[in-house]
User: Fold these one by one.
Assistant:
Number 1:
Amino acid sequence: MKPMRLLILAAVSLAVPAALPQQPPAQPAYAGFDRNRYPGDAALPELRKHFAFTGYWLTNPPGETGNTWAGKRATLLAQGFGFLVVANGRLDKEILRAAKQAKPSAALAREDAAAAVAAARREGFPAATIVFLDQEEGGALLPEQAAYLLAWTEAVAASDFRPGVYASGQPVANGLGPDGRPATITTIQDIRARVAAGHLHQVAFWVAQDACPPAPGCVLQAPPPDASGTPNAAAWQFAQSPRRKSITQACGKTYASDGNCDTPAPARFDVDLSSAPTPDPSHGR
């Protein structure tokens, strides 16, 4: 009887997996980097060993008086890089300053969007490339910020390019919820709600969320973008240079001693790291 019992158990164990629902395939994840200053042509072959795509500035990056990425698309394309195409947005103080000078938020946004679209065409990016607006300030948008951002995305949507936004996926306090308990919001949640309420064009999102967890820190193994906490993101920036110490304590050892996220030797560049479900998140090849 003992051999028979073993035979029956074996048959049952073989039958069970076929009855279980199949697990969905793991989300693909490709690694990319971005930085305000172009790393130089000579560094590209080494960087390409580790990264599938790169951020590509169409305008002067934050804090810069020039754009060293201009004219480099063909060089990057020849090395096999995909792209996250990005244009600098306005800080709230800039939007308010323009309003005092009789330029409403929407008018300023349309000017900036036209400049970004012209730069994308000049750089040779194909139609339907996603151009991301760099929204640096987090939390729920102030009225003038929302007016600027949504006018910018709508203006890009009216061109032959597609609108995207780089914004925070870091939850911040947002008063009390319907149940009376403290609530949180992310900038991307706020933007998505405004887009839906206004029946506006679809917007792609490059989520900035470097808190550990969910971020793994400065590591080359790209995490799946859905792990960021923002579903359906086009890309997830999971490490920044320099790191924000208050939210990266759990992964601080993955960063360099100066707090930056460095690429492997011999390149050694301070970078931000992102992951995406495609090697060309802006579809800019």
Number 2:
Amino acid sequence: MSVKHSRDVAAKEVAAGKATTIQVLISSQEAPNFALRRFSMQKGGGMPPHTNTVEHEQYVLRGRARIGIGEDTYEVGSGDVVFIPEGVVHYYENTGEEPFEFLCVIPNKDDQITIVNAASC
């Protein structure tokens, strides 16, 4: 077991993202089944269409964003809960004036990320 404060976890730039950082709050080395991550997208930031080989469970902490999941588009904000199945194309666009932040839980499995051409969505 461990307890730490999120401010003590380094934020790293998301390579494929725009103005987006990730903090791995609980890593696969710390917990046997799931990892917990915090994403922050600055105004105008986001992530391009992509797929993952693991599912995502997400909880929006603050801000507003447009999230595309498969053929559907959602406007989300603080308190919303999002489920993204494995293998489904998804993207994020911060549509607000403040940072868009969410917690993301994923299973501790190998996660292959594939960027998808936006024209094919």
Number 3:
Amino acid sequence: MGGSYGGYMVGAALAFAPEVFDAGIDIFGVMNWVRTLESIPPWWASFRESLYDEMGNPATDKARLQAISPLFHADQIKRPLLVVQGKNDPRVLKVESDEIVAAVKNNGVPVEYLVFDDEGHGFQKQKNQIAAQEAYLKFLDAHLRGR
């Protein structure tokens, strides 16, 4: 379970080590590094170069970024996945969650998707925080209890 970069790690774990974990919870995680780095919002411009240094420049490192992006390896995901996303997230665009959910569904793997229409990158409203926590517990109970 993880959010943002931690959500990416969940996707990467399920895609690149499909037998290691029994389930995963991705909370607004990066699933496509090419798109994420290409869509850096204007107020993140000061961080662009450091992100490019750390992750790669999508203009010159596209193949590497695709190689490390869970979306391009979603056919390997075999474990249940819960994806939680804020509709208004400017950092990890909702389309990334939409795409990973569709790809995992194509595998015939149980996938649940919870979108908060009134949230962005992180959940500020207490009612949404509670709803997310309840969804995590319900998902884990359904997919891990008795294992």
Number 4:
Amino acid sequence: MSLVITPSTDGATIRIDVAGDIDLATEPALWDVLEKAVLAEGIDLVVVDLAETTFMDCYGMSALIRGARLAADHGRRLRVVNATGIALIVLRTCGVLAILSD
């Protein structure tokens, strides 16, 4: 399955809905959107919604962690919500779910 990334802005929050597979082939597209969202003017919070994510491997997890670090470096926050299925398993197993969702 391909990846569909849909960002939307509401005040100082950017919400990024991610549908499909996040893997080696699609991670660069996700990272591009994450980086632009985190660095956008006037943004305090980036929310990444994984409700429709059907697959995620270590490349997807890495992009989310890098996004959270970039956000922290700029005094902003990145949060992951609605992780289910394999995305939830990957984030929990690697011990990063709590860091990305608090």
